[in-house]
Specification:
The protein is of the alpha/beta class. The protein has 6 helices and 13 strands. The strands form 3 sheets. Strands 2-1-3-4-13-12-11 form a 7-stranded mixed β-sheet, sandwiched between helices.
């Protein structure tokens, strides 16, 4: 599988965790090479706009959209999860995302920031490690959906203070997590093993 090196992200820890989960991993900024992989991973830490700039610089935005359209295995982690959505707003500036999932990334609506620590996530019923101040608010009137196809999505939620937000989205072979599975001990390792195994069984 190809882990996109776009200049910012939890690259080494993500590569190490995926390797331990049984994947053969290529850390690369070569989009043409990544396009031949059996799975694509979008890691990320820091700012939404910086991550999108890095993906645009290596020409990966179109690759991510095409990948999702073809329902090929795709994993987004932290800001790599956020950029799969329509847009992100930080410090008053809105930046377009990859548009794979419907929704907007905004500041968490709670006083206690950043959100840093362990939370139980619905659907997985495991505790995972989070560190972030922005996310996708849970809105029952505008649920997250797959923007590029008819695939249904499963939305996994958690809360911090007064904010309930999207902790993860799964849809077929797409898995996107606001939390860091590579920093989430056995719960995260098990989640990655399951995702890698699903690729091998395709």
């Amino acid at each position: 599988m190809a882990v996109l090196d776009h200049g910012s992200g939890n690259l080494r820890s993500a590569v190490r965790a995926l390797t331990q989960a049984g994947a053969e991993v290529d850390l690369t900024s070569d989009v043409d090479g990544a396009a031949t992989a059996d799975a694509l991973v979008v890691p990320g830490v820091g700012a939404f706009a910086t991550c999108m700039d890095g993906l645009a610089r290596i020409g990966a935005v179109g690759l991510i959209r095409d990948w999702a359209c073809q329902a090929k295995p795709l994993l987004g982690i932290c800001v790599g999860f956020q950029v799969l959505f329509d847009s992100g707003t930080e410090h008053g500036t809105t930046t377009a995302g990859c548009g794979v999932l419907t929704g907007q990334v905004t500041g968490l609506a709670t006083r206690r920031l950043p959100h840093m620590g362990w939370n139980t996530v619905t659907g997985f019923e495991e505790r995972f490690y989070f560190v972030h101040s922005y996310g996708v608010a849970h809105d029952p009137e505008a649920p997250v959906s797959h923007a590029l196809g008819a695939e249904s999505v499963t939305v996994h939620l958690t809360s911090h203070g007064t904010a309930t937000f999207v902790a993860a989205v799964s849809s077929g072979s797409l898995l996107a997590t606001q939390f860091h599975p590579e920093k989430s001990a056995e719960a995260g390792a098990g989640l990655l093993r399951g995702w890698v195994s699903s690729i091998h069984n395709r």
